[in-house]
């Protein structure tokens, strides 16, 4: 057995001091004290918080985005995740137009199976709606896919409103959740042309071409359609604006019960002044080209308040890494050609714990980054909690560790971080995946115990 001693255990009913024993991929015992034998591996967690492993329910690993391949593979991305305390990711497998969902899922398994340090599950994104996909929804559910995704932006991915309605109606009897990228794609296409016509071609054109109204309109439209579908179970991903938050509040006020809301560290820590960063080559602002973009300080403040009041259910990363040199710089002279996305899977727990210090306690961090992702996406009660019989995914967190985020020392396979120089207080001391020590003090052990999570 693996025995973690003397920690402050972050449990569903609050915190208590005690020991946790891991055996056979599960939590075998939790008690005030677990007496070890000579054969047991013993780790001292004195002064640490012991969390159920963190879950990042929004990543894009080893993915072709229409412009380029992401810099992180499942191997590098899940290794980085474990170094930061994340023991499970939920990645967006995609059935592009002309590809069936079973074939799309098989391809994502081919990319991930046998390579992962952290556990991995898959959402399934649909780029078209037809009778084959309608029939294959149950096939996906039987394969352990409990959540799906649709887009209201990107011409090669987006669905029409009527198709979105039919998709939600078809998912409802399956008990599945629909995640939607909420931006008005046709408005963005038009705004991009306007911005370029004004002679704005650098990274600063990106946020100008994706106004807050484009997100708010899409959020509102999506939630009206979910209401029309009989209060379908839905998840608004990467919420970035106060106007979008107000649309969610309006939907809840009219009685919708099955709305879940995700935001990301970039919308809680950054704002659109980041696009003015020039750097040595004048193009550093490209690091922040992601969709949706970081917004105004007032949006950031509204979302941070929503985190504190419980209106945000989960914090994920939308990890979608591209190198600044050799990938993002292909868009020099035309921001529309900069691959959209940024890294984050390694640093999310430290960013949130540090930036909300004194406002969010251990139980809050657990709720936002472990418990609620498990509940929303069909992994509870095996994941998301410390309890006997639950999976042996555990993060022993040292809340006093002081360190600085640097691209030179990160494990994300990308040449930059959007949080360069951020001073953190708190770090994953020990990360166990399925009972195996996968990372220690921010460094990988070399183990690859990650398994597919059928939900």
Automatic annotation (TrEMBL):
PTM-bearing positions, type N6-carboxylysine: 149
Cofactor(s) the protein requires to work: Zn(2+)
Post-translational modification: Carbamylation allows a single lysine to coordinate two divalent metal cations.
InterPro entries on file: Amidohydro-rel, Hydantoinase/dihydroPyrase, Metal-dep_hydrolase_composite, Metal_Hydrolase, Metallo-dep_Hydrolases_sf
Keywords: Hydrolase, Metal-binding, Phosphoprotein
Gene Ontology CC terms: cytosol
Pfam hit, one: Amidohydro_1
GO molecular function, one term: metal ion binding
Domain Amidohydrolase-related residues, every copy: 49-435
Family (UniProt): Belongs to the metallo-dependent hydrolases superfamily. Hydantoinase/dihydropyrimidinase family.
Biological role: Catalyzes the stereospecific hydrolysis of the cyclic amide bond of D-hydantoin derivatives.
Cited NCBIfam families: D-hydantoinase
Protein name as it appears in the record: D-hydantoinase
Biological classification of the source: Bacteria, Bacillati, Actinomycetota, Coriobacteriia, Coriobacteriales
